[in-house]
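Job type: complex structure
Entries:
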Amino acid sequence: MALFRRILVANRGEIALRVIRTAQEMGIETVAVYSDADRNALHVRKASHAVHLGGSKPSESYLDIGKVLDAAQRLGADAIHPGYGFLSENEDLAQACLDARIEFLGPPPAAILSMGDKVEARKIAYQAGVPLVPGLQEEIGEARLAEAAKAIGYPVMLKAAAGGGGKGIRIVSEEKGLREAFQLASAEAKSAFGDDRIYLEKFVTRPRHVEIQVMADKHGNVVYYGERECSVQRRHQKLVEESPCSVLTQELRAQMGKAACDLARKVGYVGAGTVEFLWSEGRFYFLEMNTRLQVEHPVTEMRFGVDLVKEQIRIGAGEKLLPVSEPRGHSIEVRINAEDPETFFPSLGRITRLNVPGGPGVRMDSALYRGLEVTPYYDSMLGKLIVHGEDRAHAIARCERALRELRIIGVATSVPVALRTLQSEEFRSGDYDTSILERIQKKPTQSRRELAMLAAAAARFLGAEQAGAVAAAAHPAGSLVTPRWGLIGRSERLGKGGR
Amino acid sequence: MALFRRILVANRGEIALRVIRTAQEMGIETVAVYSDADRNALHVRKASHAVHLGGSKPSESYLDIGKVLDAAQRLGADAIHPGYGFLSENEDLAQACLDARIEFLGPPPAAILSMGDKVEARKIAYQAGVPLVPGLQEEIGEARLAEAAKAIGYPVMLKAAAGGGGKGIRIVSEEKGLREAFQLASAEAKSAFGDDRIYLEKFVTRPRHVEIQVMADKHGNVVYYGERECSVQRRHQKLVEESPCSVLTQELRAQMGKAACDLARKVGYVGAGTVEFLWSEGRFYFLEMNTRLQVEHPVTEMRFGVDLVKEQIRIGAGEKLLPVSEPRGHSIEVRINAEDPETFFPSLGRITRLNVPGGPGVRMDSALYRGLEVTPYYDSMLGKLIVHGEDRAHAIARCERALRELRIIGVATSVPVALRTLQSEEFRSGDYDTSILERIQKKPTQSRRELAMLAAAAARFLGAEQAGAVAAAAHPAGSLVTPRWGLIGRSERLGKGGR
Amino acid sequence: MKYFTKLDGEERVFEFERRAGKLLARSGDRTYELNLSLVGDGSAFSLLVDGRSYDVAADVQREHVTLQIVGERFVVHCENERERAAQAVAGAKVVGKRELRASMPGIVVDVKVKCGDLFEEGQTLVVLEAMKMQNPLPAEASGKVARVLCKAGEAVAAGAVLLELE
Amino acid sequence: MKYFTKLDGEERVFEFERRAGKLLARSGDRTYELNLSLVGDGSAFSLLVDGRSYDVAADVQREHVTLQIVGERFVVHCENERERAAQAVAGAKVVGKRELRASMPGIVVDVKVKCGDLFEEGQTLVVLEAMKMQNPLPAEASGKVARVLCKAGEAVAAGAVLLELE
């Protein structure tokens, strides 16, 4: 007997597929929802049912509570999994589910509301005895901006009150750029969350971003599954995550775990959540709580041998938490973003070739497929590569190996930068902070550039030979196999590309 | 500092890639060897160096000791990993390596020799106190055949003395088919091993095939990593393997483990080896020892969190065994063979489409790539899908999920039969034996056949519509993207296939 | 357009119609609402049947449609009206000739009969080897060997005629 | 045949020759022995350089070669002799015109200048949004806006001219 009959997954991309996989393993049917741009997406093809929501803009599809709820009711779904992003931290959907007697696989509306408002969240954390970074615990307007920033002391950070996932964040090191940064942050916040409130806090020196995975059931039990180190970030978006964090002592880990659980209890939390901390010089400060499954949750899953989505579903059905097993080895996740590895600008296009890594200790969570069109409508994250090894050095080596096996042709990706990060002395030493990426060499070495030039010439030479062969003989004698004149040969022959 | 500078991998296919992956993770360079048919194989492309051996026939390439050794010496390899099959159980290569001061990553020649001869192996097992199946412990000729079979009692099994991997095995239930079976077995043995000696033994009732993974270092330490249950076989080739075995008591497991280690010690074993047992009605009998890494070794790796290839390499370099950690959860492997799912006949062709499964607890070991030509020269195994779950039910559900995600187009594969095996009551109960596959439904259900007919009609309808669209407009207006008229549309248009 | 499908001896006819933005498929007294979308290079499509989702990989070689769907593999024979009509005309011309064909590509290791030999049903006529497995090819019915078209050591393609039989 | 490659301002010339069953590539005083083999649909090839193995994915759009190799991505400019000669002739005709182009496909969220405006180096001229990120496009040098070719809310392709500058 399955815990639910049918779960609607109110999301897209790799996380929708992630949830569908676990539901299938639990014998639960799934309903995918999709926008125009996602008609062929893997989550649509792998779900048991699929419902079209509307246009490609999030507001016309994945952000439309009415459409999502209507689909759930029409298809008889008895639970909704919101994934991350989109409606995952929207208390209105949580409330609507409650009213419609559909299980929302996340925390109660009140917990979403209080943790979703960064100002409110800091107040509650303060009350729960969780240490805070110095800053203003209320939203700030353009008028008082300069004065407040001066009082806290530069560098300061501008953050969206309703934010998450790094969107709407700007760091300002002097008064000069403050106003423009505020406007950009505010506009991004407005566009991403429909809420342009911004708050201000001190930017901590050499900070590391360390977060605790918590899980709470409906019977008042709260546990934590260790930490994740997420300091490798660019534009405040994480790129590489690992667990354990190499600078955390067992004592500090226990303190942070307790603080995270205390906070969860304080807001009557249910389900999976993540409490983000800044770590700096042996101390930790509360940053925010994400009231949903985190992108980097597989890092925890691989060490603890747990399926966090399965736990979410079990808890949603009223079951009790299972005991947390002993963590094993070391785990690393690399996000695969469609972006230029030097400028980090988004890279759009069609995936024309895809090779995913295999072998021991490698997990690939993505909704990539050959033929996928990467559009500007959604996040640039295409998927995640997660590895597990006996220890940190083993996990790093394995991650490097797997990243080299990964081939995505059609868009530029962040893989080369991730690879150079893993190979850097700073990362290998374990002593790094959230600005590590600024120090990572963005360009390949001289010998690799020379190899690339040789390979490019070889590619054209090979293409010319193939084209010559085609011209010479339409059907080569003695060949059992129909010749395949691939992109290289074809391009030479026609004098243009065949994307 | 790496343990070796450069390892030559004297094999092809998924196992060559498997070894290369671990060597890369250990910072060791690799030398691939290849035949004509394998110029584009993944093991060639992923190794640091590649050496062409010769023709596509194994005897001209992967079985040619002289060529392999010459390649190792020319490239300065200080170790050779033989994989499984080919030269992996060839004592001449082991001896030649010893003479050339190249580390053979396997047991000493004497251990290969004694365990490789099934008759000799049984004698040694008997001396080591390991229980045996009743039978003849010497090779048998065509003359004495009928008489000996009658003495042991039908059904009897004909086995190649030099055999392994199920090759050259025939079961005979009455005297009538005995002579032809002997001739076929003998011919197969000759062709596969260059040795046509055959021996005879009793065919045990409702047997299960359970094997113990052992590992021995050069310091006299021998350990075992639990068992693997390998009873799902057709034509005496394994199709599905799992660990733990559901009928093994902790006591019996310990007895089998001890017997396996005793045998390894008796022959001065070094490296990874597998002792195969028949299990029948609560008792176990020695079958044979495979003096190499086994195809199904990942089943063990996923439960014990160990990399057995890494252990082989460490041991070859003279390091000591690491302690065996506690096994966790349940693991299942499915072999992906290029064969007709109903007749088990090999299926050859070109891989035109490939989608490998991802997500939690899934590992894919294969050398498959889009464009791969499956030739008749080598084994029909294309790769392996391995899953790990919290318990047996979870692992089965996960394996089903992953198998449904796996797409290999271009050849027929054994996947549908594996899937139906996992879904069968007999497999789920855990109470099965080596003839389970004979009882598995080979054909899809009625409702699935109806779905297939609808889908086939839909495929043709879609193709006709696409072809119509092409005819109507060579360049559709307003489209940013060059239209892709895929195989379906193209086939309709040209009136022929485009494989 | 009508499509005539055949699988394992069973037949079903489907008629497709686009109406009011919907795609309907009729078979007997059943009507399905479909939503079809080609994926990637066109060797696969997403099929929604009354909202149920199926991921289909398809290799269409005119009337031979090879499918992968719900973890199964099917080779469905599927003709449209025009082809069926053409087939009906051509059908009369096909004259059955008994042959032994290679069931798979491989190497002939043994030809157990010679021209003129009589054989029984089930008797092994030729032994083929592929991927290190030897596979005896048995006679489907009793008969006589009319011509031997292969010899030991020869590589043959799948479907190659090895013997002509009477 | 000679090939002229350019990457990050560096140039190398390679000359290929097949001799005695071997493929040689010469560049300056270095000679490499190569072994090339197209893989799959031709968007990749296996490259052996003096026995060292590299797995190369390549997208060749005439002289623009996009490569994936050793975990890196390169866009190499590569011309053959013929193209280089043709380029030399055509080169004289190209007249530089200053423009602000979209660095990526996206949606224009703000045009900070209008026709005739003067601007400083580094000043934000247009703000683009893609994948929920807002990206200001700064002026590479000081100047004056000659023409505005985009407006807020408009979707633009990568490389689209947004402003003409003087």
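Summary: Residues 466 and 485 of chain B are 7 Å apart (CA to CA). Chain B has 17 helices and 20 strands.
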